[in-house]
TrEMBL record:
It comes from the Bacteria. This is Type I-E CRISPR-associated endoribonuclease Cas2e. The gene is cas2e. NCBIfam families: cas_CT1978. InterPro entries: CRISPR-assoc_prot_Cas2_sub.
Length: 97
């Protein structure tokens, strides 16, 4: 089970309460879970996505290790432009779409 990280910015307090029930808040708005399963990660992101669609404020970024992805990382976003990781001759870069 890979490390999972969620970063929040300018969101309602309900996000903090929910995320601290399943993850560690290591800095303001930065949550990590060292052993979150894929199923739990999907359920957490579904809850956050539903709230974000309803409230429409702030932004969230989800990052987790995925061996099949470029750089072995996946990124999901809400409220920010979508981002992908690209390999530019061995240097990993984040591309905003």
């Amino acid at each position: 089970m890979p490390l999972t990280m969620i970063v929040t910015r300018d969101v309602e307090a309900r996000y903090r309460g929910f995320l601290t029930s399943v993850m560690l808040e290591i800095s303001a708005g930065v949550y990590v879970a060292p052993d979150m399963s894929a199923g739990v990660r999907r359920r957490v992101w579904t809850v956050l996505g539903t709230w974000w669609q309803t409230l429409g404020r702030g932004s969230l970024v989800l990052v987790w290790r995925d061996p099949s992805a470029t750089g072995h990382l996946r990124i999901e976003t809400l409220g920010d432009p979508p981002k992908t990781i690209v390999d530019a001759d061995g240097v990993l870069l984040v591309k905003r779409e």
